[in-house]
Amino acid sequence: MNGLLKTLAFAAVAAICFLAATPKAQAGVDVGINLGVAPVCPYGYYDYAPYDCAPYGYYGPEWFSDGVFIGAGPWFHGPHNFHGHVDNRFDARRGYSGPKPNKGDKPEEGKSFNKIQGFKGNEVHNGHEDKR
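^ thats the sequence. predicted structure below, dont judge the formating
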């Protein structure tokens, strides 16, 4: 029995040494590296996973350059110090359940990106992760 205890004690010490010597993986280092291409949404996509298409009116006109969405979340490609307005009444996390376009849809005729009629931005986002 004494030999069994020594063997178990040696195994426990060896396991502790092995775990202490194993290099730690840095969690989150590769996040966003292999996400693929940004979703193709006519009025932009929400800046949080699963990156569903946002409805017309969620993003203000400053989020578009020549009618093209400048991105949000891991695909953001606007200026470093960018801050743009959103209307969070159209945010699904805040209870919006109205119509949203599907990925791959084209913009509806007459819905301009440069002057969104009646846009009332009530929150500012920086284009990267939403820091609420």
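Confidence is low (pLDDT under 50) at residues 22-32.
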